[in-house]
Amino acid sequence: MEYIRRIWSEIKEEKIWFVILTCTELVSLFFLWLSGMEQFKVLAGLEVSCLAIIFLYAVIWNVRKEQKKKERFLTFLADPSEENERLAIGGAGNEEQEILREIGAYLRKAYRQADAGRIQEEEYERYVELWAHEVKIPLSLFTLLLENRSEEMSPTVHKKMEHVRLQMQSYVEQMLYYARVKAVNKEYLFEEISLEECCREVLDEYRLYLEEKQILVQLDLKKKIVLSDRKSLCFMLSQLIANSIKYTGYEAEKCPKLKISSGSENNRVCLSVCDNGCGVKPYELRYLFEKGFTGENSQKKSTGMGLYLVRQIGQEIKIEVEAVSVYGKGMEIRLWFPVV
């Protein structure tokens, strides 16, 4: 059916030639008629039939020619090599040949630049990952020193050093996960995870921060098991908890609270991280997960990368991230796990 439509379309495009051939045939038939009625009756039908056959053959031949020309051109666009350019030029006119040569030269240059950019990006990703892993070595030694020599330090110094360690660790992890989000090839290990164990593990990392700010932690974690990547999920939780710690207790008269709870709805498991901090204004909520967004509370030291990475990693491991906030009353981030 498609082939018939192409033939009909070609006939409409070439109708001027059809009219010319028809006029020529009519003139020929007129002279035959003048030469004698007997010859006219014999040859008129034959000439009309021959005209129709010749015209139809020409149309079909042209349709096939244009189809091959189109296929060669599309192949050339997909792979603008010199060989494909030569094949595409083969069925083109002089003006089209010049245009195709310019297109080929431009596309090959663009492909070379894209390949060079991709190589540079891969090298940059490898460098970032290598740098981050190398930084982890002195960071681990720093952690070991704080654990084993804590009695040799004053409580104030130890607390400040622990804050520095946590901050350094957070920035290094952000860098690693940012590189992973931007990487072409990604690896995730999905396994059954206890949400309670995962949350307690992350909370233990921030224990000193929570104690210092006197944040009341409320846990309402039912025994929920989800299928996810453990490291990625722990990173997401660490960013949510760090964000809550940063903005909880923003007003002195409040008793700072952090509530982590889990539940189910429509067979989907939901993990909620809720605080009673300053929250965000309604018009800011839509930009909450944008890269670099810090809102009106940007005077607090923030890179605006934490929640951005939470959303990006959530998309990678199929966790839906939802934010609910009432300005001046707090923020709630919900993680919806997929049904497996």
**How many angstroms does the end-to-end distance come to?**
44 Å
The gyration radius over C-alpha positions equals 36 Å
CATH topology annotation of the domain at 192-340 = Heat Shock Protein 90
Strand order, largest beta sheet:
2-4-5-7-6
| Residues in β-strands, percent | 5-15%
CATH superfamily of the domain at 192-340: Histidine kinase-like ATPase, C-terminal domain
Binned, the helix content reads 55-70%
Summing up helix and strand content along with how strands pair, one would put the structural category as alpha+beta
CATH C-level category of the domain at 192-340: Alpha Beta
Please characterize this protein's 3D structure.
There is one protein chain. This protein is of the alpha+beta class and 340 residues long. Among the domains are: 2-78; 192-340, Heat Shock Protein 90 (2-Layer Sandwich). Helix content is 64%, strand content 14%. It has eleven helices and seven strands. It has helices spanning 2-13, 15-35, 37-78, 82-90, 94-148, 155-182, 195-205, 207-212, 230-247, 282-285, 306-316; strands at 190-194, 216-220, 225-229, 257-265, 268-275, 320-326, 330-336. A five-stranded mixed beta sheet has the order 2-4-5-7-6, with helices on one face. Strands 1-3 form a two-stranded antiparallel ribbon. Helix 3 (37-78) packs antiparallel against helix 4. It is elongated, with a radius of gyration of 36 Å. The two termini are 44 Å apart. 19% of the residues are buried.
